[in-house]
Amino acid sequence: DAGVTQSPTHLIKTRGQQVTLRCSPKSGHDTVSWYQQALGQGPQFIFQYYEEEERQRGNFPDRFSGHQFPNYSSELNVNALLLGDSALYLCASSLRTGRTDTQYFGPGTRLTVL
Amino acid sequence: LAKTTQPISMDSYEGQEVNITCSHNNIATNDYITWYQQFPSQGPRFIIQGYKTKVTNEVASLFIPADRKSSTLSLPRVSLSDTAVYYCLVGASRSGAGSYQLTFGKGTKLSVIP
């Protein structure tokens, strides 16, 4: 049973550039959420996708955008990168019709902005 | 979203039972309690989830008193590999709107000493 996968593992960008991160949900899951985790902090919710639409959004600027594909995989895009965007980006998947919304996380993508 | 309070850090010797208590005074009627474990530079790993009384799986036990204003994660006979950050979250209830966002605090950093 394949778990949540993310790519790439690590990424280095410079200020002002754009980045795309990718996520494949756990087999059987249809909902994907993205989180940002700064060093020493807990993960912070960015947004969630279901049925190829953004359903909920946390307190992040419009520079952060996403997409969900028909196969439930998802992308996170960040434009005009800032130094403060350096973080571990986590993808979590869940099943919308499950009894509870238990989210399972991928290994993350470490983004460094120079 | 209900706020949680947990100790910032705990130390334990190998082989001991560890209990981490989380306070969630304003937990809603439909909220579940979920615990995650996170190792450095990895995504959080789901440990256990419960609604009331006691839940046990192959990894841990979760004790929830009748008023549900707190919960205790119990890890039996910890080993060095249990050194990690443990997060307590409340929510995960199914509503008509579907999924919800996870709100992480700073968690409890457990250090297991040989």
Explain this structure:
With 114 residues, chain A is an all-beta fold. In chain A, 0% of the residues lie in helices and 50% in strands. Chain B has no helices and nine strands. Chain B has 114 residues and is mostly beta strands. In chain B, a hairpin with a 4-residue loop joins strand 5 and strand 6. In chain B, the strands form two sheets. A five-stranded mixed beta sheet of chain B has the order 1-9-8-3-4, with no helix packed on it. A four-stranded antiparallel beta sheet of chain B has the order 2-7-6-5, with no helix packed on it. Chains A and B meet through strand 4, strand 5, strand 9 and strand 10 of A and strand 3 and strand 4 of B.
Q: How is the secondary structure organized here?
A:
The complex is a heterodimer of chains A (114) and B (114).
Chain A: E1 5-7, E2 10-13, E3 19-24, E4 31-37, E5 44-50, E6 53-57, E7 64-68, E8 74-78, E9 87-94, E10 104-105, E11 109-113
Parallel strand pairs in A: 2-11
Antiparallel strand pairs in A: 1-3, 3-8, 4-5, 4-9, 5-6, 7-8, 9-10, 9-11
Chain B: E1 9-13, E2 18-23, E3 32-38, E4 45-50, E5 53-56, E6 61-64, E7 70-75, E8 84-91, E9 108-113
Parallel strand pairs in B: 1-9
Antiparallel strand pairs in B: 2-7, 3-4, 3-8, 5-6, 6-7, 8-9
Helix and strand content put the structural class of chain A at mainly beta
| Low-pLDDT regions of chain B | none
Multimerization state? heterodimer
**Which series of helices and strands of chain B comes N to C?**
EEEEEEEEE
Shape of chain A: globular
- Tell me the distance between the termini of chain B: 38 Å
Q: Major beta sheet of chain B, specifics? A: 5 strands, mixed
Number of strands of chain B: 9
Q: How large a portion of the residues of chain B is in β-strands, by DSSP E? A: over 45%
What is the mean predicted local confidence, pLDDT of chain A? Answer: 94
- Main sheet: strand order of chain B: 1-9-8-3-4
Largest interface: which pair?
Answer: A-B, 33 and 25 residues
Determine the fraction of residues in helical runs of chain A and give it as a percent range. under 10%
Average pLDDT of chain B, rounded to a whole number, is 89
End-to-end Cα distance of chain A, whole Å, is 37 Å
Q: Which descriptor suits the 3D outline of chain B?
A: globular
- Helical segment tally of chain A? 0
Strand content of chain A: over 45%
**Order of secondary-structure elements of chain A:** EEEEEEEEEEE
**Could you tell me the radius of gyration of chain A in angstroms?**
13 Å
